[in-house]
TrEMBL record:
<feature type="binding site">
    <location>
        <begin position="129"/>
        <end position="131"/>
    </location>
    <ligand>
        <name>NAD(+)</name>
    </ligand>
</feature>
<dbReference type="InterPro" id="IPR036291">
    <property type="entry name" value="NAD(P)-bd_dom_sf"/>
</dbReference>
<dbReference type="GO" id="GO:0030060">
    <property type="term" value="F:L-malate dehydrogenase (NAD+) activity"/>
</dbReference>
<feature type="binding site">
    <location>
        <position position="98"/>
    </location>
    <ligand>
        <name>substrate</name>
    </ligand>
</feature>
<comment type="function">
    <text>Catalyzes the reversible oxidation of malate to oxaloacetate.</text>
</comment>
<feature type="binding site">
    <location>
        <begin position="11"/>
        <end position="17"/>
    </location>
    <ligand>
        <name>NAD(+)</name>
    </ligand>
</feature>
<dbReference type="GO" id="GO:0006099">
    <property type="term" value="P:tricarboxylic acid cycle"/>
</dbReference>
<dbReference type="Pfam" id="PF00056">
    <property type="entry name" value="Ldh_1_N"/>
</dbReference>
<feature type="active site" description="Proton acceptor">
    <location>
        <position position="187"/>
    </location>
</feature>
<feature type="binding site">
    <location>
        <position position="92"/>
    </location>
    <ligand>
        <name>substrate</name>
    </ligand>
</feature>
<dbReference type="GO" id="GO:0006108">
    <property type="term" value="P:malate metabolic process"/>
</dbReference>
<keyword id="KW-0520">NAD</keyword>
<dbReference type="Pfam" id="PF02866">
    <property type="entry name" value="Ldh_1_C"/>
</dbReference>
<feature type="binding site">
    <location>
        <position position="105"/>
    </location>
    <ligand>
        <name>NAD(+)</name>
    </ligand>
</feature>
<feature type="binding site">
    <location>
        <position position="162"/>
    </location>
    <ligand>
        <name>substrate</name>
    </ligand>
</feature>
<dbReference type="InterPro" id="IPR015955">
    <property type="entry name" value="Lactate_DH/Glyco_Ohase_4_C"/>
</dbReference>
<keyword id="KW-0560">Oxidoreductase</keyword>
Amino acid sequence: TQAPVNVTVTGAAGQIGYALLFRIASGQLLGQDTPVKLRLLEIPQAVKAAEGTAMELQDCAFPLLAGIDIFDDAKQAFEGANVALLVGARPRTKGMERGDLLEANGGIFKPQGEAINAGAADDIKVLVVGNPANTNALIAQSHAPDVPAERFTAMTRLDHNRALAQLSKKLGTPVADIKKLTIWGNHSATQYPDIFHAEVAGRNAAEAVNDQAWLADEFIPTVAKRGAAIIEARGASSAASAASAAIDHVNTWVNGTADGDWTSMAIPSDGSYDVPEGLISSFPVTTKGGKYEIVQGLEINDFSRERIDASVRELTEERDAVKQLGLI
Ligand code: NDP
């Protein structure tokens, strides 16, 4: 068998962490041939709760789980990490200004970027889940100058999966028949789920839907505001679906997209589709052999252009704000 892969998870005692760790340990992140060692990072007050989760993980007797270590120090937690899932973040609380939110997260993601730079394995792959995810990823990346920038990604796979589910419902087709859907931009309410290049059982999805009003007034807002709808219904934010999307993101990154399909990942822009270079923005990507590539040459219509630009503008503003705060 293979040597164990070190997977560092931050915010391990949180809701998403609780839904995520058991799936990693059961082999769903990296596959049934790959043993994993979990390295859990928590703030000191939450270490005890993480220890409780670790006890439950042991009690599952997962054959692929080769060890669990718990830390309250980022340098130690990222030592030797091959995969890092950055889930812990400072959520926006009532009355908090955006600058305060970005500053609080700078205090988390700057030292984590430094720790990844100092001690992670050469093949480190980073997924940021904690919000504001794209900009948190940018902060971490800018403090890890020795790690290739493309290893820092943020999660829009949950948005992608939500869009698949809504489209599947609208057309009455299984999600498995839908390909080439794209989330563009920021993981926020400005994100743009694009079905103009999507295919449903081989047919163009926008043509199959043939309902511009549904697209503009139902589909896009439903996908973008799904998080709030879940809080409203459940009395707590989405956790299992976020964890599931994190598993999908890393699994696809490592194992590749299917022929004739792509996925959505927020990645450092190379300037494609007029997204300013360096911004961590969501794109259509194919993956192979642990590397991803932006799908090139898609024609962007005016409807899409306007929405991509609006989300990218928000990302630019967030970048300017963290720059001004000295966080990048
Ligand atoms: P959750 O586990 O529910 O969420 C964690 C983060 O994921 C939040 O920033 C949340 O953002 C974000 N997120 C991204 N996408 C989604 C989504 N679709 N649905 C829900 N959340 C999403 O938070 P908890 O408060 O339960 O747990 C956080 C844990 O992190 C705590 O145990 C805390 O101690 C820890 N923590 C650890 C740090 C560290 O290791 N250094 C630093 C800070 C916190 P949003 O809230 O905006 O939805």
